[in-house]
What we know:
Blueprint: E1 9-16, E2 19-29, E3 45-53, H1 62-75, E4 84-90, H2 94-102, E5 106-112, E6 115-121
Parallel strand pairs: 3-4
Antiparallel strand pairs: 1-2, 2-3, 4-6, 5-6
Amino acid sequence: MLNADGIPATPIAIYADGVAVGFLMYIYTLDHESFENEVFYGKKSYFIWHIMIDMSYQGKGYGKLAFEKMLMDIETMPNGEAEYVTLFYRTSNVIAKTLYASFGFVDTGIIQDNSMLAIKYLDGKITESLVE
């Protein structure tokens, strides 16, 4: 599937016992020009664009399990080779920060609209080297 800009986008619905409880989406793209001074700029990457779990289903493990499955899919590089995967999370969302860190994401220090950009290498390298 391609998004409106012609970029490969992969939507994933999350179901529990036949009930839709959330939605994830990732895209395959080059970095936005606002990152042109970063060491990871100009390389193909996966970007986790949407992560949503219905409020009544939060805190039950659905988001963590779905996120893990999505990362497993991304690691197969279904839309092409990439060195890393990125995402934004609200700086006030400590639960999200903890979840993403548990999967190896590190903060870059780049904040846009009160959201932190976090990054993870896809080849097992130490991610911290991307943000030094």
